[in-house]
# Entry
Amino acid sequence: MADHSYDYDVIFIGAGPGGYVGAIRAAQLGLKTACVESRETLGGTCLNVGCIPSKALLHGSEKFAEAVNGTLARYGVKLGKVELDLAALQADKADAVKGLTGGIEFLFKKNKVTWLKGHGSFKDAHTVTVGGQDYTAKEVVIATGSRVTPLPGVEIDNDKGIIVDSTGALALDRVPKHLVVIGGGVIGLEMGSVWRRLGAKVTVVEFLDQLLPGMDGDVRKEAGRIFKKQGLEIRLSTKVTGAVVKGKTATLTIEPAQGGDPETIEADCVLVAIGRRPNTEGLGLENIGLELNARGQIETGPDFRTSVDGVRAIGDVIPGPMLAHKAEDEGIAVAEYIATGTGIVNHEVIPSVVYTMPEFAGVGLTEEQARERAAASGSEIKVGKFAMLANSRAKTNHEPEGFVKVIADAETDRVLGVWAIASVAGTMIAEAALAMEFGATSEDIAYTCHAHPTHAEAMKEAAMAVQGKPIHM
Ligand code: FAD
Ligand code: NAD
# Structure
């Protein structure tokens, strides 16, 4: 495709999972590719201050909790006094981030992707300015990601470490005595779990009447029960209206979501985790006449083209779930569209996982969405559910919480959605995504041989339960 009137065939702005994966794919397909990134390291939010560091702390804190709460003792592991070395845990996290971000730099070199270091902005639709220098490309892909949504009246200052966003919550050098998490979504529950396990009192303040919006109703209800049992205090249907910091203490004013008498809570750490918003400021979008939708996102067509010729967009900056694997798949697809004219992302089958213990995972429609769609089209659905308590491996491992739920069309039996709560639900859900991608019926899953004893057998049993005939329940 090389067009010598441009410096590059394609420039990606942003080296997160969308931009870096897209750039590598584009280079693999023979395009002369550059990627602009202003951070010191590649990998975007996900590798630097998102997926990877949060999973390092979740994994490490789980090990600490196993030592403290008697889980290891049950297996005959005799321990002396268990103490936390938070600096060591943070060092392990930093090591994981360093290794993986360095790995992307290696992959850029290997695939001959040029890293244009600095902040990128549009001069025109085919010219991106980085550090005062102009670079031209036939196609420019915006992959600038997202940042935390601010909450008016609750000012984030990660340096002080009292009111923080997820980046600050990942970097604390102390275990808070009382952490208040504003927002009972994915970040709130993952980071709340980390600091709860390490010894903090944790209060989650959630505006809605359930945790984890977007997930299946049964899953959300069960999440509330499980996190309460783990010692998190959950304040549903409650909003924070302001915060005052004095010394090392924050005083939050909260009130019922629909209005009512205010009360105050004190905390030595507050995490604001009420969602994320796209990064579009300072990109020079006004220079190319690209407008944002009401949610501040860039709208695209199926081939990720924006309304401006030669400019495409992927990842957190466009509508859809703000997930690393969605951004990655869009990165691959946009590169393939540019190089070959075709590409594919099935936005109906994007799994989502909350990496707590147990994990909460799902793909496809929730039961509520499936019922609503069925009612609108005059069809019906069938639901099969199997409790992890009846799964031999989960029972042996003392992991009784959770279930797998398979939702299928009553007439065609085609799987519409799968939800799971289990210690390894994030891994289990890959099977459901694959099945749905192949248009599987619940019977297809039920008649697929699953290794014994594995948590995954619960998926088979839930599929059998769609026909009302699980074996072990
Ligand atoms: P980003 O990863 O945000 O990357 C965009 C990059 O562009 C950034 O590095 C930024 O510096 C750069 N940039 C922006 N503007 C410019 C500019 N003008 N010039 C140059 N560079 C620019 N998702 C999951 O799927 N699984 C998880 O477990 C998970 N955990 C998360 C935990 C936390 C705490 C957070 C905050 C997020 C988590 N996410 C997770 C979400 C995930 O990180 C994002 O969905 C993903 O990173 C989006 O990828 P992206 O490429 O669109 O953008
Ligand atoms: P979220 O949308 O998951 O949750 C935000 C929560 O805050 C919601 O429950 C919402 O009802 C609540 N809320 C909004 N305003 C509020 C207010 N004023 N007071 C109290 N509660 C309020 O967002 P998040 O947890 O900030 O995560 C941001 C994004 O990052 C998500 O889209 C998520 O997909 C992604 N992420 C993914 C993972 C993962 O895949 N495991 C992990 C972390 C983050």
Remarks:
- The first strand starts at residue 8 and ends at 13.
